[in-house]
Amino acid sequence: MPPTTTPWWRSAVIYQVYIRSFADGNGDGVGDIAGIRSRLPYLKSLGVDALWINPWYTSPQADHGYDVADYREIDPLFGTVAEAEQLIEEAHAHGIRIIPDIVPNHSSDQAAWFQQALTAGPGSPERERYVFRAGRGPDGSLPPNDWDSRFGGPAWTRVPDGEWYLHLFTPQQPDLNWQHPEVHAEFESVLRFWFDRGVDGFRIDVAHGLVKDPELPDLADRDGGAHPFWDRDEVHEIYRSWRKLADEYPGDRSFVAEAWTDTPERLAAYVREDGLHTAFNFDFLMTDWDAKDLRAVIDDTLAMLGTVGAPATWVMSNHDVMRHASRYGRRAAKKWLANESYVPASPADLELGTRRARAAALLTLALPGGAYVYQGEELGLPEIEDLPEAVLQDPVWERSGHTERGRDGCRVPIPWSGTTTPYGFSAADATASPWLPQPADWAPRTVAAQTGDPASMLELYRTALRIRREHPALGDGTLTWLDDTPAGVLAFRREPGFICVVNLSTEPYQLPAHASILLTSGPVEDNRLAPDQAVWLTV
Ligand code: NOJ
């Protein structure tokens, strides 16, 4: 893609394609590259700037692609490298950039390197590429330390020769050893492989986890110093090197980090001038529907990223968290969002959640910086919380001993058209059903049903994205709060001549003086903004 005057990633709206659930081109019930290619006109008409595509590489799918066996091949489930190249070319022709996921913290246990490490045995150079250690206890039958896997159970698995290997996620996802030069060289070569094929950047999985304390100390012994595996300062050296590599390529290639940090200061360290370009703003995603909390997170984000000159990103949903229409329909959602527990505490009020999701879309898309849209949020899809246990596939379900249902509820295949499953996700004559069952009541949620209906979520997103593209005040830049609003009302101005007002209170709010209403999340009468509604004004 040709360079732009301001780098595109400072203000881009990036649409997340969870590939296995987006569109199924070959009728096997699983989304694929052919499906994405067939939906490019839709994405163009929606008005997004880029697609982040979840891992499409060869993978046994133990964690739905986040267990990569070959970083230079596309999984046959999704297509071929040639099809990926066609997708990149066609997307570019539509003015849409492509950002695949890269998974550098761990590979699949089926990756050639890991298989070689298993065969080569203890003490071999092959084992050095991963984190193998002897166990503790007289016969080495205890794990080397007390670290737990993110998906439940110990972070160590013992192999038949008695050694243990580290996996911060499932046992099928062995952690790579980023103290090893070959690991650095391999990933730089993989980045080049895909940059050479025209991708516009990468989303970096677990960007904060690559470097471990070489001593592998017990977490119980942590005395307040650096965490032994999360967000260690040494990771930034890796990204400085990746940045240089990306900068060798024309057209503003860019990275977005999935980095969970304790503070906005720590997050800003990822996006310094010589580091990555952007990072997901999970603090925003984790904030409940509360004016004071949202304003604080917006202020902290902008202040902190301002110190390093990086743009903010605004994200409400992704493939790992409860969809926000359901989240905002609950009182307290935070526990879910920290990935601590996927068990809902109370049923969602979906009418309320949807009203708030509409208002939240206007808030998010008016804030300075870039924004992410997770596939289906533009259709107002809720979390599917009643998937039968027998169909659950997220490793979290098994690893938690069936105490946490996992993330399948936000990954249900997208409804495109028609009145019954597969709702156009697969062709009607497909040989297989969608890999997760779709609800029976999704007919009104399809793209076809919502298209042209001015009251639909889809048309709200389309209009908002069009205005965002056309209005000089939106995208990258700054905001000024209007401070004469009551508690519970967020209002800010962007120049030239734009105001966003969001009413999170329980009372209607009389709008400030304005020239015209550009867009509202719901009907506005007598200039009164109802609770849980938002409006864009020109002044
Ligand atoms: C974060 C990804 O978003 C998630 O889906 C995955 O399970 C873990 N990283 C492990 O790769």
Task: Describe, in plain words, how this protein is organized in 3D.
Among the domains are: 112-166, Oligo-1,6-glucosidase, domain 2; 463-538, Immunoglobulin-like (Sandwich), CATH 2.60.40.1180. The protein has 539 residues and is an alpha/beta fold. Helices cover 26% and strands 14% of the residues. The protein starts with 12 loop residues before the first strand and ends with a strand. The chain has helices at residues 33-38, 40-46, 81-93, 112-120, 181-196, 235-247, 264-268, 282-285, 291-308, 324-327, 334-337, 350-366, 395-399, 447-450, 457-470, and strands at residues 13-17, 50-53, 57-58, 70-74, 97-102, 132-133, 156-158, 164-166, 201-204, 254-257, 278-279, 313-314, 370-374, 480-481, 489-494, 498-503, 509-510, 516-520, 528-529, 533-538. The chain has an 8-stranded parallel sheet. Bound molecules: 1-deoxynojirimycin. The site of 1-deoxynojirimycin has 9 residues, from loops.
Indicate the low-confidence ranges by residue numbers: 335-340
CATH homologous superfamily of the domain at 463-538, by name? Golgi alpha-mannosidase II
Strand content: 5-15%
CATH topology (fold) name of the domain at 463-538:
Immunoglobulin-like
Helix residue percentage: 25-40%
Name of the CATH architecture of the domain at 463-538: Sandwich
The end-to-end span amounts to: 35 Å
Q: On the 0-100 scale, what is the average pLDDT?
A: 95
Rg over CA atoms, rounded to whole Å, is 23 Å
Give the tally of β-strands. Answer: 20
In the sheet with the most strands, the strands line up as 11-10-9-5-2-1-13-12
Note the overall shape. Answer: globular
* CATH uppermost class of the domain at 463-538: Mainly Beta
The number of helical runs is 15
Largest sheet: 8 strands, parallel
